[in-house]
Amino acid sequence: MATHVLRPGSRRHVTLDEHLPVDHRLSMVYRVGAGVMGLVLLVFGILGFIDKIGFFDTRGDTVAGLNTNGALSVLSVCVGVLLIGGMLAGGAVASTLNMTLGVLFILSGFVNLALLDTRYNFLAFRIQNVLFSFAVGLLLMFFGMYGRVSGGLPHDNPYWKARHAS
Where does the source fall among the domains of life (predicted)? Predict the structure, then answer.
């Protein structure tokens, strides 16, 4: 653990990514979360490719109960591969990736909710896609923040130690 010298009037800067050991048990939570969500998105995207749906088609073609088109399939595969890469990296990389993509999924849900039934709905979202986006976002944020963000972290938690280094 790095030691920090505080000078009067200076701020302490702690980079949390440096304080999680590679083999820490929290890494498994981050890996499982990234892997499961990545696999779900990858399968959804591949099923969209198998159906040979047009790239910006908004006819309402469904895969696994969700509307999709070629653009959404490509996006799903890319994000799924990114999450699987985060799973392989593990640790703070997977945690940070889960949190970041979780926030992006929540934002995507709100944006696409506003775009429903407009000509700008180029990803062919329907309400079930918006709800799926919210659910995936919340799950990714949960997996990413687990053991990292809390007011009651145990004193042996590496993030608590990083915040309370003397």
Answer: Bacteria
pLDDT digits (tens, 9 = 90+) for 74-102: 999 999 999 999 888 877 788 889 999 99
Longest dimension (CA), the chain: 64
Could you tell me the two tokens for 152?
């009651």
Number of domains composing the chain: 1
Average pLDDT for 100-127: 91
Name 14's Cβ contacts closer than 8 Å, sequence gap at least 6: 4, 162, 163, 165
Closest CA to 69 of 6, 10, 125: 125
What does the alpha-carbon distance between residue 147 and residue 79 come to, in Å, rounded to a whole number? 24
Q: Tell me, yes or no, whether 123 lies in a domain.
A: yes
Cα dihedral 74, 80, 82, 85, rounded to 10, equals -140
**CA–CA dist 14, 162 (Å, integer):** 7
Q: Which domain holds residue 43?
A: 24-146
| pTM check: above 0.85 | no
User: Is 160 among the domain residues?
Assistant: no
User: Which residues does residue 63 pair with via DSSP β-bridges, in sequence order?
Assistant: 66
In a domain, 54, yes or no: yes
